[in-house]
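pls ignore typos typing on phone
magnesium ion + seq
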Amino acid sequence: MQAIRTWLSPLIRARRSAPRQAGRRRRERWARRFMGALTLGTVLLVPLLAAALVVRAWPILAARPLSELLFSTDWHPLKGQFGFYPFIMGTLWVTAVAMIIAVPPSLLTAIFLAEYAPERLRAVAKPLIDLLAGIPSVVYGVWGMLTVVPAIERYIAPAVQGSLGAVPLFRSDNPTGYGVLAGGVVLAVMVFPSIIAVAEEVVRAVPDGLRDASLALGATRWQTVRNVVMRRAWPGVAAAVILGLSRALGETMAVLMVVGNMPRVPGSIFDAAYPLTALIANNYGEMMSIPLYDAALLAAALILLLIVVGFNIASRLVLIRLTPAK
Amino acid sequence: MTRRKAKIEEAVFKALMIGSTAAVLGSLALILGTVVWRGLPALNLDMVTQTPKGGYYLGKEGGILNAIVGSLYLAGGATALSLLASLPIALYLQVYAARSRWADVARLALDVLWGVPSIVYGAFGFIIMLWLGIRASLLAGIITLAILELPIMVRAMDEAIAMVPSALKEASYALGATRLETAVRVILRQTAPGLLTGVLLAFGRGIGDAASVLFTAGYTDRLPDSLLGPAASLPLAVFFQLGTPFPAVQDRAYASALVLTAIILALSLISRALAGRFARHVIR
Amino acid sequence: MYKPHIRIEDLKAWYGNGQALKGITADVPEHQITAIIGPSGCGKTTLLRCLNRLLEEAQATRVSGHVWLDGTDIYGPGVDVTEVRTRVGMLAPKPFPLPMSIYDNVAYGRRIHGLQRTLDKGNGRNLDRIVQHYLQAAGLWEEVKDRLHDPASGLSTGQQQRLCLARALAVEPEVLLCDEPTSALDPISAQGIEEQLLALKEGTTIVLVTHLLRQARRLADHIIFLWMGELVETGPAEQIFHSAQDERTRAYVAGNIG
Ligand SMILES: Nc1ncnc2c1ncn2[C@@H]1O[C@H](COP(=O)(O)OP(=O)(O)OP(=O)(O)O)[C@@H](O)[C@H]1O
Ligand SMILES: [Mg+2]
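k done
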């Protein structure tokens, strides 16, 4: 103790210089302003994005009634007819099929990894699923063309046609495998990782106390998951599904390569479709050469943006409504 | 009786879950397998060291070095640009605006941006190009990709920084540090592994994206030589080569897809290796 | 009598709508150890964190009243909080080293305040000497002198707490706030910290929150006794422990409540 006292006694209180202090304050102030301005800029990017599309699509929005643009099935750019209905339906069909295929296995996988899988398996599976998320969409497209399309053409379509062919939804008069189902399968595999990663985390975040309470009453693990864990986790799981949905709605390349790209409203899962994204990507080359065509393609981008943002915000509102306050 | 039913139900669902997990992991194996199986035979040294020569798209010699270099430039430039904005934004959300109303608004906007399809960013980039009066170019591609990567990077960084214990920040504040000093000297070090993961994630998204560069970066058979000239990219190389009617060129598309996949795999390995190294000082 | 270093005047604090401090008025004498005592949840930590304006870093907190530090109100208009926190140091209940080396932890405060070169002018390796000085002052030097550039996270909890003490001292605060500084430590480390605090009071005013009555008896010169957010009694330790005015104080120091 004595030693320490002698150590401290010669201490001269250092004087912090006023100019330096002012410099620190100034840097702090400017940093706050700079970072705040960047954040504000990012927030403003959302309206800017929409505004830019509206301005450039204005020629066609002004020249044609909205109902015609949205609900006409006539797409003849050379004749000046721009009906987006087939493309909107193409986007919705492919996305719907993809989500129907993707959601059940994704959720089961997420629950398995969160609740049942041993730690070692989880440690291997999670990085692999992250890897799946990182694979570029053209690679998915290549895979779709090489395996999914031939499989549908050779096996799935004939088999379904043979058994369920009477149901319009499963009628197959498309001899190629390119169509809604191929797009749906490829998209489903693409959205697996986005749904699984988030859903797994949500399920894992449910406190152990809840599980123990149910298990202690003699419930099986599955009963516990179904009745207790999922009841608590479902808003988060729904959010995970919405995340996957917005990824599927906006995907371009992978879908473009396998859906067949025919501008008509599909009636069966084997029909070809032409989603909005594919429309824009396939035709950007000619957009400057035909009157109103550029405005039409940018209007397609605008419609796509509105669908995605609309879905996102609507589901968010519904979720907030349905989530019980803690 | 009900106990038996419960047991059976459990067994059924467990089988379904194991099947699903196997299917998900199996699809990954299937994708990688397909790309390697079809891409490897066409892959050779020329593919990755040569630019396309005359007649390349008819099956003559050449390679896709233009696309490899173009993609690295595009994604590298975009990631650097995006990092310059993302890091301050993530720090702002966590350090300055922590838990305020305004931070919620900003996060909502970032979520919306996260969900915007890349083709829409492509269209937006195209409109900006028209306004600025520049052609499809490396610069336009970089700007568009940077906007695309921004929400991805900010979200990853925001999540990483949110994990910093408040006691750690307070330890720095209690020494008289400003928020800026705390952010730069303490939070960046503490979250370095997470930030790095975010950067590499965004880079991977950028290098794999085709729809946004389609409009904005153009395509050329030469190596990119100027910011204002066009630049090729790997995803578009795959797409265009697949679009030709020649099987030999289509095989090269598969080889290009393999190259792209290999880059993504390498990134993921690098990310794991570096994260450990960056974690030296992290407080748990 | 004593010379007050800090005067707390009608200090109130809220978390959201819950009021945690209901108008505290008390003095903290210079170069003494003032212990804030009282039952759990009575507002000790809250009061302490008001003294270096750290409370406002938590969400939804609000403070009113005055804290005069050497005659200036740290809640007055135009006061720079970083200046306040430089003059008033703090030692948290659980050690939180910064994510950097042992050396950099101690040097951190000096660097941000631009004080790398004070203490013994003319020596080329000043920062090294400063770091050594404060590690010695915190009684940690001998244990870490061979691994100064290793991550601080590699130290034991007791060592980390002494590192945090060295880190706080290196800024040369006039006042040191300690919130149950020994609660996470083993008895030997705790005794070490107590000894450092006693040695420090020569040049530093210390405010110590503790729930250990015996620790308060051993260390404190002055006592602030809180009860459910209110000040019950404050005065020299002698007086509080032996001739308290209030019934609750007498019961508490006798160990009957809290
Ligand atoms: N972050 C917070 N949010 C809301 N209320 C809080 C928070 N921290 C403390 N409180 C409340 O404020 C009151 C005072 O808390 P404080 O932490 O100051 O007590 P304390 O005397 O330090 O207790 P202990 O001896 O247990 O550490 C308590 O009633 C507590 O519930
Ligand atoms: Mg306390």
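The first strand of chain A starts at residue 75 and ends at 76. The pocket of magnesium ion (ligand 2) is lined by residues C 44-45 (CB under 6 Å). more later
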